[in-house]
Structures are given as C-alpha cells and as structure tokens.
Amino acid sequence: MNPIHLTWIIPLFFLSLFGFFAILSAIISRTGGYAPGWRIRCTTCGHHKPAAEAGIIRVAAAGTKYTLGRCSHCRKLRLVAIEKDPDAAAEHPA
Ligand SMILES: [Zn+2]
Fold it and tell me: Of 29, 32, 81, 34, which is closest to residue 58 (Cα–Cα)?
C-alpha cells in the first residue's frame, strides 16, 4: 500500500470518530436523553451520584450495567455500576 494512504487514513479515522461523538452529543442535548432516576456507583469506594450529573445515558430499561468511569471520589478510573437510584424512584414513581 502506498504510505501516503496511511497518513490520511489515521487522521480521517479520528475525525470520523470525533464527528460521531459530536452528533451523538447534539442528539442528547436536544432530546435531554440523560437518565433520570439512575445513579452511578463506584464499585471500589461506594461513592455514588446521579447518572444525569455524570452525563450517563440510560442504555437499558432495567438492571445494573457496569462501565469504566472516573470516580469523582477516588479520582481514578474505576469500574462503576449504573443502577436505579432507590431514592429517586421513591420520589418520582413511574
Ligand atoms: Zn470511588
């Protein structure tokens, strides 16, 4: 393969990746797609906060999901659980 092609493919790849996230965030800001009644919990220290505050989008209707995220308490990359907030569920019954 011509090495010129490689020098173009790499920046184009990142550009398209950036474009994907830009479009995704634009959709979220328009639809308000944040997750009310959900919270993220650090599996290391137990610190939790509302998912909307962390910018987490609800990806499933029920159940606990795990993802990598930066814990604001540990200040490190941790495995965080995305789960139904029992307090919010009590305040705003569906
Ligand atoms: Zn933590």
Answer: 34
